[in-house]
From TrEMBL:
Top enzyme class: lyase
Record's GO cellular component terms: cytosol
Organism from which the protein derives: Drosophila virilis
Lineage, uppermost ranks: Eukaryota, Metazoa, Ecdysozoa, Arthropoda, Hexapoda
InterPro entries referenced in this protein's UniProt entry, alphabetically: GHMP_kinase_C_sf, Mev_decarb, Mev_diP_decarb, MVD-like_N, Mvd1_C, Ribosomal_Su5_D2-typ_SF, Ribsml_uS5_D2-typ_fold_subgr
EC number: 4.1.1.33
GO molecular function, one term: ATP binding
Residue ranges constituting the Diphosphomevalonate decarboxylase-like N-terminal domain according to the UniProt record: 8-174
Protein name: Diphosphomevalonate decarboxylase
Length: 340
């Protein structure tokens, strides 16, 4: 019997991935850039055991059974790692041994935050450890086939997912841009907005976007390539003003595309919009961009802020969104935040 346990953190996109050119291989229509969060804060944890005596592959997610063999994405990840293991030849046991996989998220599912990215990254990385494979570009192409954004969670710090151009997806890879230590005072706050409504998932939302939005191709061809370059330069020079402006515009463009989709995908709610207004007002009051928001396919806000500005921003957030108000932010998680 052989076993491996790993954790993989959540990542949050700065330049957003939205739209596929190949649904099966999960090939995006544009590059994306993200920041991976601290592994201890919000992550998936997976244990995989391989045994000659197991009769079938089995999987549990947060203690619930997952129908493994019927899940095409899971199967594709397993097949992808096993293909690499076969080529590498270093594994200590037969690839025919069945697996038992147990995975947990340590963040509240209500947060709806990139759980598939951390989950698939963790699955693929743990499989790689089990079969004694290195973390490299090829492994990111496997994680990408679980969930596109998962390929970015294999690395810490700032990560670039290149869309690639080959039909087989071999050059659609994630590459690390800079470790977290490059910008150590970069912090993120997550404002979890209380919202029970069911939304169109990312996969469906981007499918609809590609087939109905007349803005999405302009974004992919004209806007994103320029923004990726500008954001990479901002990260390299630790220029928070440029970083904040690109991040905010990216979030707004993603949601503009979602509204341009037919029927429209509405992910942000009134509280999300109140947070947007709050951040713009706050930046105007302090006289520079000290906070930047980004929203994925949901109402929750991620706010980027430098460590030295966290206490003032948090105090302003608590004043603007008191817990008992109608427009409340359910709770706040800092990554990492000093106590106030
Ligand atoms: C808005 O990676 O969840 O978070 O590839 O279909 O699994 P699939 O989609 P997914 O989409 C993430 C979309 C996003 C933006 C981003 O993370 O870049």
């Amino acid at each position: 019997m052989f076993s491996a346990t790993c954790v993989a953190p959540v990542n949050m996109a700065l330049v957003k991935y939205w739209g596929k050119r190949n649904e099966e291989l999960i090939l995006p229509i544009n590059d994306s850039v993200s920041m991976t969060l601290d592994a201890n804060e919000m992550c998936a944890k997976t244990t995989i055991t391989a045994s000659e005596s197991f009769k079938q592959n089995r999987m549990w997610l947060n203690g619930e059974v997952v129908t493994f063999e019927e899940n095409a994405r899971l199967m594709r990840c397993l097949a992808g790692v096993q293909r690499l293991a076969l080529a590498n030849g270093a594994h200590k046991f037969s690839l025919s041994w069945k697996l038992h996989i147990a995975s947990y998220n340590n963040f509240p599912t209500a947060a709806g935050l990139a759980s598939s990215a951390a989950g698939y990254a963790c699955l693929v990385y743990t499989l790689a450890r089990l079969y004694e494979l290195p973390l490299n570009e090829e492994l990111t192409t496997v994680a990408r086939q679980g969930s596109g954004s998962a390929c970015r969670s294999l690395y810490g710090g700032f990560v670039h997912w290149r869309r690639g151009s080959s039909a087989d997806g071999s050059d659609s890879i994630a590459v690390p841009l800079a470790p977290a230590s490059h910008w150590p005072n970069m912090h993120m706050l997550i404002l979890v907005v209380n919202d029970a409504r069911k939304k169109t998932g990312s996969t469906r939302g981007m499918q609809l976007g590609v087939s109905t939005s007349s803005l999405i191709q302009h974004r992919a061809k004209e806007v994103v390539p320029r923004r990726v370059k500008e954001l990479m330069a901002a990260i390299e020079s630790r220029d928070f003003q440029a970083f904040a402006e690109i991040t905010i515009k990216e979030s707004n463009q993603l949601h503009a595309i979602c509204l341009d989709t037919y029927p429209p995908c509405v992910y942000m709610n009134d509280v999300s919009h109140a947070i947007v207004n709050f951040v713009h007002d706050y930046n105007e009051t302090v006289g520079s961009l000290q906070a930047a928001y980004t929203f994925d396919a949901g109402p929750n806000a991620c706010i980027y802020v430098l460590a030295e500005n966290v206490p003032r921003l948090l105090a302003a957030i608590q004043l603007a969104f008191p817990n008992d108000a109608q427009q409340s932010v359910e709770y706040l998680m800092g990554i990492p935040v000093p106590p106030v």
